[in-house]
## 1
Amino acid sequence: MVYRRLDPKETVATVAQLVRRIDERFPGVGLVHVCQELLVIAQESSETAERIARPLYALRACIGVVVLAIVASLGFSISLLDIDRANLSAGDLVQGAEASLNGLALIGAAIFFLVTIENRVKRARALAALHELRSMAHVIDMHQLTKDPAIPGVEAVATPSSPLRTLTDFELARYLDYCSEMLALLGKIAALYAQTSVDREVTSAVNEVEVLTTGLSGKIWDKIQAIHTSHRAD
């Protein structure tokens, strides 16, 4: 089972190692701070996913007491009914049966609502955390937007608003690769919620994060391939 599930501790350790790698290669750049924030999110997500997986015993106890109270009240109400079977007509029987079914349906809906509260609470927590991961993916993408490789045979003419291009091709490739790794790790952090929950909405949200990070990473790899193609052409 060790190699069949993501280990939250190993995931956090991998992000921590990436922070050190970026800081050693590009000390003090903004990408280091973004990766440090990713490390914080990884630690929080690890704890949150484990907390979501644990049963909410206090909430279950409260719900159990309320459900027992509803059932006991229903039983007590039925025991107080005084039905005169001798004077009971067919119309009265139909009306009574219809009223009883409606009452049972409402009580059943109320009990179902109470029983599913725990799942809704856990779902809300997971979806809020996954929304933060989606936002983080766009933050990472922002840091690679202006990191474009040079076009072979085209002389670069900078304008006053042009971004500074101080990185060599090797450094640019490493920078873009770090961004791609951060996006990949972001997808793995999201997957921590999928392996602790069978809720369809949570699973769907995790898949959306993974699709987003894969798409953004694909754009980055196009740039990396352009750098490699330029070197082969040279």
Note: The chain has a mean pLDDT of 83.
## 2
Amino acid sequence: MRGITIRLLADTRPLRESPAFRRLWLGTTLSTVGGMMTKFAVPLQVYQLTGSTFAVGALGLAALVPLLLVGLVGGSLADAVDRRSLVLVTSSLLAALSVVLAAQAYAGLDEVWLLYVIVAVQSLVGSLDNPARRTFVPRLLPPHRLAAGIALTSLTFQISLFAGPAIGGAVTGAFGLAACYLVDACTFVGALYGVARLPPMPPLGTLARPGLAAVAAGFRFVGSSPVLTGVFLGDLVATVLGMPFALLPAVNAELFGGDPRTLGLLVAAPGVGGIVVSALSGPVGRVTRQGRGLLVAITVWGLAIAGFGLSRTLWLSLVTLGLAGAADVTSVIFRSTVVQTVTADELRGRVSAVDYVVGAGGPELGNLRAGAVGSLTSPTISAVTGGLAVVAGAAALAWSLPSLRHYRAVAADPPS
């Protein structure tokens, strides 16, 4: 029984074996929880000011434009400079933006346009920060620990998905939205500490000169690999067609009384499912048919979102959102492991930038789609049609990209 439990639990050897990875993981976890408090607070503030799901979804557009304009160039920059130094600068700027959000809330400005501008600038800075940050784990861990390290990194995000909105809802109910923004600013201390203690992270191999030529080289590499193309398309199918978060304030208001604490539970529910899968990610880390696993996870995500759209009770809404979160984190582990395994270090910044643009831009487009369809029809129709479209998209990818279905990775060694 003890052996079965060990095989099920997440492989924590990267935390034990690499002090640098451990410090980075702990600092990032703290900061990401704070960031999710802000991601909870901004849509709620916009909805309180406008009463419009489209206005909430338009936050995705505000984030998407700078993401597309800067994200890919940010990857070429990460392949040309010391990545640790770059992340220290960008993390400091993101902390300052959280202070600005707190200031506007405490001042009672209540200007929707200002929130859009701050979200856009956050997206711009994040587009420089994230591709560089994603190159850290393959440099800190050996190849046979990479899947376990990515699973632990995913656990960080899932903890934040649960804890950030849950804490954000409680803090908002007790102290107001401004307190969420202020807590986020304070948690950046953890992120800055974890990055500051890393060794220098210059790119290995041939240095790329930042610019369009370097970006084009990254795209050519992705386009030359059907497996990479497939995992990125799979993520876009799941997020653009199925992302439900822009609908949650309206669903909470229409079905559950509009209490911020209930909204916090709804936003946190996917994180609960993600935490469970991340904590029990031992078997996921030993899957070798990662392309097939990705397609199955995307299908489960779509079915769960459709089920959420049909739900009329709080417990069922929480369960379906939790199942969606479990499927999402499984697909992220598979996608990230494939991307980092097949990419040479000298291209990791640019390919990680493509991964970031897809992983961050897809949900923003998905929230815009969900908000627009929800405004024109209803939140139910938006969620159900989106979820079923995801299922159809996953089937189309499985049929059209056999190389993705048949992709095999090298399994990690058994837990010690």
Note: Residues 12-405 form a domain with the Growth Hormone; Chain: A; fold (CATH 1.20.1250.20).
## 3
Amino acid sequence: MPDHATPDVETRIEHLASGTDLRPVADILVRERTSIVGGWLQLAARQPFHADRPERAVADHIPVLVDAIASVLARNASPNDDVAAPLEDAAVAGAATAHAQVRFEQGLGPVAIATEFRLLRQEISRVLVAHLEDELPTTDVVKSMMVVNDALDGATMLALAALTDRIEQVRDEFLATTLHDVRQPITVIEGALVLAARWLGRRPIDLERLTDTLDGALLATQEMSVLVDTLADASQIAMGAIELDREPAAINRTVMTALEMLDPVSRARVVLDGDLARDAVGDWDSHALRRVITNLLTNAVKYSAADAEIKVRADEEDGGVHLRVSDRGMGLLPEEQAVLFQRYSRTEEVRARGLPGVGLGLYACRGLVEAHGGRIWLESEGRDRGTTAHVVLPLAPVDAD
């Protein structure tokens, strides 16, 4: 029996189903599964948490869950048989937990996941009301629907309990994976300040050395700021808790603000191609988009030669803005271009070259861009042939209805 099942639930199920023929309900769930899942999909797709990423509104493990509940009811077909609680059934628990895990990895939080299970209960109830025979005893109908509702409530409880465990695991992963990377810029800053104090204590003061040392400390501070922002964004996205502070924002101003986050040497490598869609103003979170652009620029700097040019271009296209950040760096293989947006994903080439990073930057970028109703992807002609990061943002806010 799953750890989260309770005797109270089992007793209630046994009491409700005692003397009840559950076969009519089981038969309807089997016969009308396609209708149930299709109706549920329509309801789920209209929810605000799917509005910005409609591709997430797919069935996943919902058909398996419906089949599992039907199977439990079918096994309890005879009114004289002992009734087993659906919550005890491994297939019910497994399907519910698997669906919650998939949704969590897609960026949905516990409230959204629980809402999907409530919508499934609503759709099953609608179908049962439409298809149960009128001559069936009212008590059998009521008890059958209560058993189904208890099964779905139990499935929701199991899914959310598993999700809680997964959230704790993700938090531990964030801490373990990022601790070393956070320490690196702190160590650089501490070392630079020690050196600066040494240069200040010597006479005459070597201003050139002092300036270089303080520039190094400033660069490490900026790197740490970008890293902390990335960790915060990635954590919120993983927990399904990303919130945007939308306001009218100009893409050209946002790009220029992002450029200011680069050190002077890196900034000098950036070439602005065109007028950056000067008149384009969207309903965006400018601070979130600044973090996206900064991350893309930082990647372009990190993964290309020290003297290689980086191009930034923004154009108004089809009611939106298309931003491109292009470098002439190590490039990507075709199979790498999509998986890099997954959490902790880094290419073998990057690992082989020992380049720093935790594989969260593009994951955070994707979450922030898609929260705006936009799209982000990478293009490359292959290894050592450079990469272009594309971001497309709608100028008008996405209608959540």
Note: The longest strand covers residues 310-317.
## 4
Amino acid sequence: MPVPPLPYAMTVQQSDQAFAQAMQFAQAGRLAEALSLIEQAAEAGHPDALFALGDAWWRGIGVPQDLVRGRELFRRSAVAGQPMGVRAYTNLLASGIAGERGWAEALRRLADEARTDGLRARMLAVIEAMELDRNGDPIALPDPEQLSEEPGVWLYRGIFSEAECDFLRLLAEPTYERSLVKIDGQDVPDTIRTSDGSAIHWLIEDPATHAINRRLAAMTRTTVEQGEPLYVLRYRPGQQYHPHVDWLDEPNRRILSALTYLNDDYAGGETRFVKADLDVRGHKGDTLVFRNIASDGGFDPLSEHEGLPVTSGTKYLASRWIRERRHSP
């Protein structure tokens, strides 16, 4: 039975008690009761309750998913001083996911956070070394080297700095999981990719990662909103990605792929286009861009490719798959 709402405003002590009780209910699987108490504590301005309620709406846990409502609760939790809420709202403000975008304000907030948070300080340092305009877009890009016309394949050499590559590896390190593939709208373990992967999803897409994604958008002549979340892949010796295509024949089709090589101290692991007799061995900071769509607007079978087995060392790769139209909320 859901917990009935209190007929009066909670005191700070009562909101603390309500939130603690909510966590106990949640651990016991009593989600509806937990959410009822979290809502009451959030209404009283409890910082952790505001963040927890925002997370529930953001992910659709016990309530219908509503990113806009989740973002607003993250904002309120940030105002209340909840540390995760502070970082989450800065991230969302930088990217404009599920609401307005405020790049300059996000950078100001990041500078404040960097005073007491080493990782946020590193993000700020990475951004400050970039040549960006007021919107966070790259001021200039080098010309790519075209490796193939059919399929369309280009290589941007040294487009990302060592510091940027190392930062993405650091960001991904705590959250590697068995690589997944989307089947019928669901993420399931991939049977042809034996790597580990870490998705830098929308909520944790920090300002530095967002600036990297904007550069990838400029390189592919798309908007940043067309990109899927950046996905960092780790291939240890013996791991590989068997022949496959990145194309998704959905209403919003996946038309382009951008693969950024985050290191080069490994052997094997070449990217092979199996029907085009093309092998690519990128160096740290290089980005390989290729089309999954043919000149007639349909799927290009020549885009089939594979990641050959790594024979020694560990290969790190950041993948950004790009849709035909806006993909981000």
Note: Residues 12-27 form the longest helix (16 residues).
